[in-house]
Amino acid sequence: SGGDFWALDHVRINLCCEPCEISLLWCLWYTKSAAGTRRINATENGAQERKFVGGSQQISIKMAQKIGKDHVLLERPVSKIEQKEKDVIVYDLNGNTYTGKYVIIAAPLPLQNKIVYEPPLPGLRNQLIQRLPMGSVIKTFMYYKTPFWREKGLCGSAAIDDDGAPIGFTLDHVHHDGSHPALMGFILADKARKYIDMTKEQRKIKIAQLYAKVFECEEGLHPVHYEEKNWMEEQWSGGCYTAMMPPGFITNFGKEIRRPIGKLYFAGTETATQWSGYMEGAIQAGERAAREILHTLGRLPYDQINQDEPQDVEVKPRPFNRSFWEKNAPSVPGFLRLMTFGTVLSIAGAGAVYYHKYIK
């Protein structure tokens, strides 16, 4: 049914997993952290609306320039973190050591299990990082001579409900100046694990055939270039876009995700309370972890640790138009209030009958 497809589509596209793999509670929380289903799925006025001209890596490059390249150390995977009485010593795989008063760990939660901790992590934290797999996705870019979908009056965005199709979702990927026309497509969840056995060329051919069918245009069969990123084989993320939380995880380990351990503090997009799984969430989490340390140093009151990100003055989210049924559809809180009210009325009514029949 349409509702079943929407639910499957929502989970696979946004979480890169199958519904059976994750907690419903976490799925609902994740969606709420991104301001709801419309905001998280929308292109115009939504999470998929904007891209960085020149690529988002510019953020990292500019930060490195500001901090100083001597202070940004690349290709030094952390192998051990040792907490001492007054400081913390970090060891990398190259045999280097670094000493500081505090450490913020922002690596994906599953990868934190690769680090040796001295003293060992508390039981719940140790169990937490053993229970979180990363999402499964292969991100693809099919380049064409012209944006043929635009020439047909199409936007290039498609949700594809076809068990035999590798791609589940596409977006227009033409550069801001009209150059390098491409369709960006995502091979998601079980399909990513299925099509990983194919060669890159085999995936290219199958995706090109699919685009020709979906956009009803022969030109889809003739790309000029193809690129892909198989996030499942990336050892320093383990997958994408975020760690997925299985049934029971939130209720058993939710309070431990952000809880500091001695001189260790935790950031990363999985620890965000807004836009978890996105770059915005990673920024929020990093700033929150920094404020936690400032509070420990006595430089910031406790009630200022958690702060909402200021709204962008230029790009402001606009409310979505809602139909009458959407505005008045029953909600879970409304249903519970109705049930409570009905139960109270029933008890009151039964009490009145009993009073009139047996007492009065």
Describe this structure in words.
The protein folds into 3 domains: 1-50 and 103-109 and 122-131 and 242-327, FAD/NAD(P)-binding domain (3-Layer(bba) Sandwich); 136-240, Polyamine Oxidase, Chain A, domain 2, CATH 3.90.660; 330-359. 36% of the residues lie in helices and 14% in strands. It has helices at residues 2-15, 24-33, 37-41, 57-67, 123-128, 148-151, 189-195, 200-214, 249-253, 279-296, 324-328, 332-359; strands at residues 78-83, 88-92, 97-100, 103-105, 116-118, 137-143, 158-159, 169-172, 182-188, 225-230, 264-266. Strand 2 and strand 3 form a beta hairpin. The model has no long low-confidence stretch (mean pLDDT 91).
Concise description?
A 5-stranded antiparallel beta sheet has the order 7-8-9-6-10. A 4-stranded mixed beta sheet has the order 3-2-1-5, with no helix packed on it. A two-stranded parallel sheet has the order 4-11.
Descriptive terms for the model:
360 residues, alpha+beta, FAD/NAD(P)-binding domain, Polyamine Oxidase, Chain A, domain 2, 3 domains, five-stranded antiparallel β-sheet, 12 helices
